[in-house]
Amino acid sequence: MRWLVGWSSTAAGAAGIGSAGAVGYDGETLHPVGSHLLWGDPDPLWAVGDWRPDEVRVVHADAQHRIAVLGICGATDEELRRGLFTARGGAVRHLTTWPGSYTAVVQAGRRITVCGDLAGARPVFYTPWAGGTAYATAALPLADLVEANLDFTHLAALLAAPDVPAALRDSTPYEGVRRIPPGHALVLRAGAREVAGYEPVASLAVAAPPADPGRAVDAVRDALVEAVRTRLSAPRHVPDLDPGPVPGMGPAERRAARGMPVPGIGADLSGGPASGTLALLAAGLPGRPGTLLGHGTGAGERLLAVTFNDLAVTGREAELERAGALAANPRLHHVVVTGDEETLPYADLEGPLTDEPGPSLVQAARHRARLAAGSADHFTGHGARQVLDAHPARLADLLVDRKRRHLVRPVAALARADGSVMVPARVYGAARRLARTPYRAGLEVLAERLMRRRFDEPKGAVGASLAALSWARPGPAARWLTGEALAEVSVLLQAEADRSATGAQRPGDYRARAVLARHAADLRVLEQATEIRSQRLHAPFLDNQVVRACRDLPEALRVQPGARAAILRTVLEGAGVTGLPPGWGAPSHASSAAAARAGLRAAADPLLDLFATPLLADAGLVEARVVRKALRSAAAGEALPLDGLADLVSLELWLRRLLSRRGTCWTGTPTRSRAVPSGIQPRRSALTPGA
For residue 303, what are the contacts with CB-CB under 8 A and spacing of at least 6? Predict the structure, then answer.
């Protein structure tokens, strides 16, 4: 893991425990383990982990004014200096408009500003500490610092309503550690804290001005190309030297066995439009990689394109053929990684502790097998679906803006998929109801559903679309929670509804942002769970500028069938990439459900052992026998929400790894000074006061 951490202390405590030179327990100096001090007292800042030299930049104006940027940032030092001068007056949005993926921290006197990103892939956390406020880009170090216990309400909401921001609020799995929402910045003044949004809020009273589709797609192309170019312009990093040959192994096998990536630039090439777009852009831009042998200085480096071929599950033959056709490009070096039963979901339940839980933990071994064959800098297409596709609730946004005619094509596509003439009326009616339903009423409906345990599972594409035409829905794991846990989340939602206004924003935009935040958080978990030394995963679709450009796409363009593939095809054509294979961008009918079900069948016994005495039951969130019954039924082929089982298993795995860890993120504290110091105390009711 790589993170930054610092704190802002009160003026009175500046020379006390809140300083970089503070003396902790046993006379040791209090500072993060394995840290590098970026600046010192009275408001210190550290970078922790294996940061590359070019990923950490600090620019000073004077002793009291400086800016630190950690991550991949396309701004020059002069641009950072100009941004620092502008930020001294309190403006922060311009700090988030440089290409790349990074975290910016500005110190102007005693005021500290930490900027989060728009997607939530680079979050910022904070907690009260020593009379001031400590902040970090990871929650676990702050939980260690304050010896935080688990927040059982957050864990219950994470299972009952993971896509509902009102249920998760700004909480984390650790009690007292808070998260700033995407699109916000944390502002600290001598220990006092404020969370401020830096993005303009669209008015609900006035429809958004009509956007030109051509210009909007051009903006997406420019942002995406600049995001890729920024990463290609960064210095190349060669992994640690290979210590020597191994009998019977070639260089590639030796690197994979030792957990070392291939030097250079690489990308996923699954056959889908997102990964294919990034691979072709990275290979086609001037410079390295992608320069043909004999053309220019430093030529001959090809982009390493990695395709995962799951031999245990069939149904992706067409995508693999398209990946092979794309890899015929002479600028690409194609590597196919095969998977078997050992790379199915749930096959490997061991792994490192991540900062937070996430459903991708059950698939970490599957992704690690693919990434082990990747490069030191590896592009992934994660986030493209969330920033480009239209959430079904956006149909209600079109009605709010009086653009009914744009509903014709998406509704017709659903009617063809279902084969019923009643689909248009049902979809239009559901969209109209959502457009007329206040946000507060939507939360109250969800609270009622949780309290009464109403978990109707939609069937087919039309059923899923109709179910998504709502402000909020229960999570797939909610059906297996105890009544006390569901009641706790229901009460929380009722309280949030009482505090909310009658209309927060457009329902489609609200749902899309929530889904993006959920995906970005899970991608962060996946990156930590599959981390390979000296490797960096890049997700340009989650960069601030790419997210902004995608949000400016007209709703009418977004909701059309095949919009994502059409937009990315136009992006490639604008960048000079043509000759895509037939069927490129076609939706895949082979879902991950087949692999998940096969993994459940293969790992049924270890999963049943995992839930023999689960920590989730000690926390009062589930009953062990109920979960074991669901696992047996799913392994036998019964139609159950597999995503919900992944949520349960991943959370149980994360809790076990958290409680079995040793040590702490800090020196100067005793071994007991870490998160959840007393473990999980079994409790009978999640609603018991003080439980």
Answer: 264, 265, 266, 267, 279, 282, 283, 289, 290, 331, 332, 333
